[in-house]
Design a protein that fits this description.
The complex is a heterodimer. Chain A has eleven helices and two strands. Chain A is mainly α. In chain A, helix 2 packs across helix 4, helix 6 runs antiparallel to helix 11 and helix 7 packs antiparallel against helix 8. The termini of chain A are far apart. In chain B, strand 9 and strand 10 form a beta hairpin. The chains are: A mainly alpha, B alpha+beta.
């Protein structure tokens, strides 16, 4: 599909102003894709056209397109019918999660779990001695409120709580690592969410973790985080091998 | 440790935070006028962005204060959309923007964060931190917040982010002047900066929360409170 000349489409590619940076370009295009203004299979302007239309340098336009490719939102094909095309199908999160699960080796899933445990576990240990009772009480309240949420809201809330818990380590580096790992792990972790028993289990892990922190028990908080990640990894490996919800092999 | 040295540090901190508050106070009149001018028609998010940007840029360009981020956050419920805050940060003065999908920052309920929650409730100025600011700076930060109150109504909060690294730089000369141990803590006894290498930013002094009783045999400390910001200079007795 060739570029539409409709006003809405033109607005997507209109000049972006002085702040013209790759991320702003990327964000505007991502928003348009998410909102359905740019459709799956639609051809984007060329790098040069993008740069001119949005008032950014060619380098910036290239950077943005590259980022969109990495995120799987855009595909670039060479040749006669080449160009950059939107690739975005509005599939359920679960479809994406399962295909990610299938595409990862057992060893990679285990290793992601190990990495995540190391960072999240350390965050929990530090937070145990560095968080104040006020901060932990706030989190407990949020956690309790989340009990009543549907699975999508619950996961959002719980992700927020995990991020706050990581930040209570007072380590900027560990928090940033946690963010990256959580982004990688999230589509897989979310696969458990349709099962209320799994949600309840993780809810209990969080409550116990916070309890340890209230008592300034660093090693205890770390062990719980590690146990919960190991539990998730076992569940994922079982799900991957298609063995259903029976005990792990 | 000399009284004068402690006083100097208190004075430095007071001057620093006074200057930041003055900066934000300068925004209040114009902001109020702008937000309330068209009685029935509140400004759009873009219009607020346009209005706040030059204010934020001035703050970021201020040579005397190490401002890392600045902007205005309208009161909850003002707009029916995610991420309606007008915030600029960094040496390149980039605007903080959220995408609608796949951006963890757009899922953060920032109305629960201390720099919003407290001024919204108390209608008083507030300083939050040190804390890891995973919404804006992605670094250990102190956020100075000034609420905009019109006719007893909270319309939003003007904030400035200062990286703790910058405060450290600012105070280091004072620390090196003295061999004795100096620690600056916030109202929760959380360490902002310390000349003691065993006390890291973010730790709660002596790992004992104020809520718990002090164990006998522990070192006693003296707090020298600052006037403007909720920090204290702590020294051994």
């Amino acid at each position: 599909m060739v570029n539409s000349t409709s006003r809405i489409h033109r607005a997507v590619f209109s000049p972006i102003g002085d702040e013209g940076r790759a991320t702003l370009v990327e964000h505007r295009i991502t928003q348009a894709i998410a909102a359905g203004i740019l459709e799956d299979g639609q051809k984007l302007p060329s790098e040069l056209q993008l740069a001119e239309a949005m008032g950014v340098s060619l380098v910036t336009a290239r950077e943005a397109l590259s980022a969109l490719r990495v995120r799987g939102l855009v595909e670039t094909r060479r040749g006669r019918h080449g160009g950059s095309f939107v690739t975005f199908t509005r599939t359920e999160g679960a479809d994406r999660g399962f295909s990610q699960l299938a595409s990862m080796s057992r060893i990679a899933i285990n290793d992601l779990g190990t990495h995540y445990q190391a960072v999240a576990g350390m965050c929990a240990e530090l937070a145990a001695t560095r968080a104040t009772i006020t901060e932990l009480t706030e989190l407990n309240t949020s956690l309790e409120e989340a009990k009543a949420f549907d699975e999508v809201q619950w996961r959002r809330k719980v992700t927020d709580i995990q991020l706050e818990l990581a930040a209570l380590s007072q380590s900027a580096r560990l928090t940033r690592e946690h963010v990256k790992l959580q982004a990688e792990f999230a589509p897989l972790i979310t696969l458990q969410d349709s099962d209320p028993q799994r949600r309840e289990l993780h809810h209990r892990y969080f409550a116990s973790q916070i309890e340890c922190m209230v008592h300034q028990d660093g090693p205890g908080a770390r062990s719980i985080v590690q146990a919960s990640v190991q539990d998730t990894v076992r569940w994922l490996l079982t799900a991957r091998s298609g063995a259903g919800s029976s005990s792990a092999v | 440790m000399s009284r004068t040295s402690i006083n100097q540090i208190v004075i430095e901190l007071d001057r620093f935070f006074s200057n930041v508050y003055s900066l934000l106070e300068g925004w209040q009149g114009p902001l109020e006028a702008f937000l309330t001018e068209d009685q029935g028609v509140p400004p759009t998010v873009s219009e607020i962005d346009e209005f706040v940007r030059p204010l934020a840029f001035d703050a970021l360009d201020s040579g005397d204060l190490p401002v890392y981020g600045a902007g205005f956050i309208p009161a909850k419920g003002s707009f029916d959309q995610v991420g309606a805050l007008s915030w600029w940060q960094g040496t390149s003065k980039t605007q903080l923007t959220f995408t609608t999908s796949g951006d963890y920052k757009s899922d953060i309920d920032y109305y629960k964060m201390e720099w919003y929650r407290v001024p919204a409730k108390t209608h008083q100025r507030h300083v939050a931190g040190p804390y890891v600011d995973y919404l804006c700076s992605d670094d250990v930060t102190v956020t100075v917040a000034l609420p905009l109150i019109v006719d007893d109504t909270f319309l939003g909060v003007s904030c400035v982010d200062v990286l703790v690294e910058a405060i450290e730089d600012h105070l280091l000369p004072r620390f090196t002047e003295n061999p004795a141990e100096i620690t600056v803590v916030n109202q929760f006894d959380r360490v902002l900066v310390s000349s003691n290498p065993s006390r890291a930013t973010g730790e709660v002094m002596d790992s004992i929360r104020p809520e718990y009783a002090i164990e006998p045999g522990l070192e006693k400390f003296r707090h020298h409170p600052c006037g403007v910001a909720p920090f204290s200079v702590v020294t051994n007795v």
